[in-house]
Write a structure and sequence with these properties.
The protein is mainly beta. It contains two helices and 13 strands; from the N terminus they run αββββαβββββββββ.
């Protein structure tokens, strides 16, 4: 069979379209950031909630990489905040770490598709300051499964400079979350973590920016999934 130039062009375009489609993530992630209180320059509790869905499958793809973009002017004060090593979190769930190294808490709901059934897992989350990587601060999230499995994982993130309209970004690696032997890893459906506090010893850890763009404080997130796909999303918090 002979292929003419027009046939080759059509085939090339079709192949490129297929490759582009294949690179798109079936899983969609969203974020919902909030400050409490939301008052210019105030010490605050910052909460980041995330949700994932997959219209093309029974569960979202497992998350493997996350970048959270923080708004310009946000205050992060690590003065007098202790440090907890990843090894201690993995082996002792933070026991023996300085009390001040725990900077937040939260929860997560996960799910895995095992054959004909879906396995739901609830987990508690705790946030800790980790050792610096060079000149960059790190944040570690300890997740402990409650039911029906007893698993724990540590998510590690590095706080780095970012580009406008953001000021800093938290770059996190997400390890596989195992379920049953030989079965797929769990996927995150919903999670929420609160960092800092409106009052008390962590009241100065996070501060609301002193000035706000007309359309609100800008946040963003880049998600990478276990199968190699990715997605992005943005959100805003209204001005005080």
């Amino acid at each position: 069979m002979r292929l003419n130039l027009s046939t080759l062009c059509v085939a090339t375009v079709a192949l490129c379209a297929a490759l582009t489609t294949g690179a798109q993530a079936a899983t969609v992630g969203s974020i919902k950031p909030s400050f409490a209180p939301n008052r210019a320059g105030a010490g605050t509790a910052f909460t980041l909630a995330m949700s994932f869905s997959n219209p093309q499958g029974p569960v979202p793809e497992p998350l493997s990489h996350l970048v959270v973009h923080l708004p310009a002017g946000i205050g992060i004060n690590l003065h007098k905040i202790g440090i907890c090593s990843k090894a201690r979190l993995e082996k002792q769930a933070g026991h023996g770490c300085p009390a001040s190294s725990r900077v937040g808490s939260g929860s997560a709901h996960l799910e895995a598709h095992l054959g004909a059934i879906n396995l739901d897992e609830n987990a508690t989350l705790s946030a800790w300051r980790g050792p610096n990587q060079g000149s960059h601060a790190t944040l570690q999230i300890l997740g402990i499964g409650l039911s029906p499995l007893e698993e724990s994982v540590v998510l590690s993130g590095v706080l780095e400079p970012d580009h406008a309209p953001y000021s800093q970004q938290l770059v996190m690696s997400i390890p596989p979350i195992p379920t049953l032997t030989g079965e797929p890893n769990a996927s995150i459906l919903h999670s929420s973590v609160t960092i800092g506090a409106a009052h008390g010893k962590l009241g100065g850890l996070i501060r609301v920016p002193r000035s706000c763009p007309a359309d609100g404080f800008h946040f963003g997130a880049d998600f990478g999934y276990a199968e190699g796909a990715s997605s992005t999303t943005t959100a805003t918090v209204r001005c005080p």
